[in-house]
């Protein structure tokens, strides 16, 4: 594998304060959170593939609003259909993985339907993918002809090396210094694969942060806040360069 399976660190973090500005819609038959850019144009769009907190998590909806504020029509599909992690309930990561976590046979059709819906219902011309933790796998899986045009992922999990080898589009990765899911040896393995591909790639490593920092860091800690903001700006710069027509 190019990254390890998820662990307890995938469900640890801080809820961020803020009022979201998007809305809920159905796209391709899939429940989605949708955030429009100021000009309401949809030709350049992003799909956010979330961590196991799901599409209703306030942190990721605030991030979607930020992408929209930077000019991208942004959509978060519900990949979990009620099987996301509820932080208000007792949580056993191994039991969750075994009994509730969605797998490829469930997530792939949701992703395909969302992509089809965006291209047909919203006239999307260029489509990027943003993947956090669990969602990183699906950005890489769909970074191919007929799927996503450009990809970005922060601290990915469950990625198979064959999925990285099958990519055809540009990929940017934001990695954490402390990350048992995407540790140094997995970063090197991923880099070795990317070097053999023709597509552009980028991998930035952020010190003083751990797995999940791009979504769930403690914003009261300056270094964590800085890393989260820089990882977001990394994504925006990547899409500005490779996604916009």
Automatic annotation (TrEMBL):
<keyword id="KW-0378">Hydrolase</keyword>
<protein>
    <submittedName>
        <fullName>Alpha/beta-hydrolase</fullName>
    </submittedName>
</protein>
<dbReference type="InterPro" id="IPR029058">
    <property type="entry name" value="AB_hydrolase_fold"/>
</dbReference>
<dbReference type="GO" id="GO:0016787">
    <property type="term" value="F:hydrolase activity"/>
</dbReference>
<feature type="domain" description="Dienelactone hydrolase">
    <location>
        <begin position="31"/>
        <end position="243"/>
    </location>
</feature>
<dbReference type="Pfam" id="PF01738">
    <property type="entry name" value="DLH"/>
</dbReference>
<dbReference type="InterPro" id="IPR002925">
    <property type="entry name" value="Dienelactn_hydro"/>
</dbReference>
